[in-house]
Amino acid sequence: MSKNIKRIAVFTSGGDAPGMNAAIRAVVRTATYHNLHIYGIYRGYEGMIAGDIRRLETNTVGNIIHRGGTILKTSRSKDFLKKSGRKIAYESLLAHDIDACIVIGGNGSFTGAHVFSKEYNIPFIGIPGTIDNDLYGTDFTIGFDTAVNTAIEAVDRIRDTADSHNRLFFVEVMGRHAGFIALNTGIGGGAGSIIIPEKTTNIEDLKRLLKKSAKRKKLFSVVIVAEGNKLGNAAEIAEIVGKELDYETKVTIIGHLQRGGSPSGADRVLASRLGYAAVDSLLKGHQNMMVGVLNNQIVLTSLKDAIKRTKKVKNGLLEMAEILAL
């Protein structure tokens, strides 16, 4: 155990993700078990600058494991991008005698932690909390499973309408830079095609695929579109494709519905494991690392690698999705 760490601060940053509260709960209770003082920083880096730091107790995190969002609130801080803002944040931590921080968030949150820890030598441990599942060093991020389940539920409902009216639906899901949500939603929802940022989709190939489906008397089709793909948004793709098909085209944007709601069982377990591992890692002397799960085992990855290295979509899943869509 590291004798230097007596007070830990935990905060959530960037976009919220279902399961963040479960992670906060695990951090607080694990820290309390080890007789550490645990503090919550409200509103992420913005709250760190403002000094919005409060003591957390075991009862503070009671009855939150099932709740979506984050009890610590979250934000994106422009001031923290400036050296002057980070200096104020450091002074806030000093004022509360904070020895180390645990940040729950995604790429931007970890980038801020990486820069800050180098400037002021404050140990950080990152917990991957983002529905995009795009962080290197972990098979899954907190919130991803819930987001996919939410999207699949929406696709299931859309299929009913598409089937009843002989329609072609383009369903847009989140994924500005990564197609993990789209790919898994497409496979789980039985989509006719999946368009993601990692793969260049030829519009003519898409037309041919959908025409082939129509010739087979397929009464409807659903195309899953990741918002960050290179062809354009779902509405733009639907307009181009719809002109040459017999289907009536419709567009549905699931949007921020994917971020909300009660976390799935898988996300609650993942968040609990990672929250526990984050405190344990600090006490063992690790710093500036992200805790993740690879092959169902807890692993540590440097914050630098987590944000700089690219997590790739598995080609096998892409090939399988194309075959099953025939």
Number of domains: 2
The multimeric state of the shown protein is: single chain
CATH T-level fold name of the largest domain: Rossmann fold
Q: H/E order of the elements?
A: EHEHEHEHEHEHEHEHEHEEHH
What is the level 1 CATH name of the largest domain? Alpha Beta
Q: What is the CATH architecture descriptor of the largest domain?
A: 3-Layer(aba) Sandwich
Count every beta strand, where a strand is a DSSP E run of 2 or more residues.
11
**Level of helix content?**
40-55%
As laid out across the biggest beta sheet, the strand order is: 3-2-1-4-5-10-11
SSE arrangement:
Layout: E1 7-12, H1 20-33, E2 37-41, H2 44-50, E3 53-55, H3 83-95, E4 100-105, H4 107-120, E5 124-128, H5 144-165, E6 167-173, H6 180-188, E7 193-195, H7 203-215, E8 221-226, H8 234-242, E9 248-253, H9 265-283, E10 289-294, E11 297-302, H10 303-308, H11 315-324
Parallel strand pairs: 1-2, 1-4, 4-5, 5-10, 6-8, 6-9, 7-8
Antiparallel strand pairs: 2-3, 10-11
Helix pairs in contact: 1-9, 2-3, 5-6
